[in-house]
Amino acid sequence: MSTTASAATASTTPPSTVPAPPSRRRALLRRLFAGEGFVALLIVVYVIALSPFAQGMLSERNLLNVLSNFWPLAIIVIGQTFVLVLAGIDLAQTAIINLINTVGALLVARMLEPTLFQGSVLWNSVIGPEGGPLGGGWPGIVLAVLIVVAIGALLGSLNGLAIARLKMPPFMVTLGTMLLFSAVAVWLTRSENVTGLPEEYIAIGQAQVWGALTVPAIIAVVLGLAAHYILSRTPFGGWLYAAGTSRQAAIISGVPYKRVVVTAYALSGVFATVGGLLYSARLEAGRPTLADDLLLDVIGAAVIGGVSLFGGKGSVVGAALGALFFVVLSNSLNLLNLPFTLVFIVKGLVIVAAALLDVVRTRILGATR
What is the mean predicted confidence (pLDDT) over 146-171? Predict the structure, then answer.
């Protein structure tokens, strides 16, 4: 009788009072904190909470401004994702931007002021009062873009070679090259901004195709889709995740680790170059200090987007959403007219929170395996 009664009691227990199995609770936590949906929800909540205080935040003009800042940053963050998935880091991205955007501007400038640039090592060899050698129309612009993209890939490859072949720590290598490349950018331009850029070059960063669809948007979407395909559909993407999860296990399994490292840093350099060119074209000038304040935004955006600092985890969609969050954050702080010191305090707290979120994600993912 007691057994029957117990069975009857169990059968009549309301389903709502039965606690969810631990595995189900972990799965819910994983879906909440480890997926791209968390970042999308964070953006929506943040906009709803701040829009009553940040006047004009939801206006069409401001939304277009947010998008114009989003596309180049998203490209740079996606490039950083290749390296972070590998359990590395590329601090030199911003320095590559500084160097490449000034070199590109020097190549296509239509005129240069002698009093500003005649002390440059490139004066009367590559540049002169009439500007650079490739500013005479679309063929020259395209060639200049190809040249600087190749230089960006080369600079990234040098970082990868130092890390893979010489077994140097990624942090130290890219910290050193960050200082080196930035110094070269200042040296080439004597710390002067390069103006007088042709309309064809400026169009790369500003031209509208239809409505809000701009050339930077098309470039960012194409590169994003290509990066997503590389990470999710190619052997190289699988090697990246494997090497980021466990380098030794990946090497034992046959992953060409050194080649993967060099390629990842080369891609980081290429994406940084393209993002820097878009920034430069939109600002209508080459600036040797263009990306000096951009590094923490790039790293913070990637981590908030689910790209782990510990390696082995991350996606292009998450990285792009993280970039969007940082652009919205910066935009809202500007609309609130906060002092620049307070802006840096808020961004610093957000980056610390992103690092904490990365730790939480890592523990949740580890508990669900």
Answer: 97
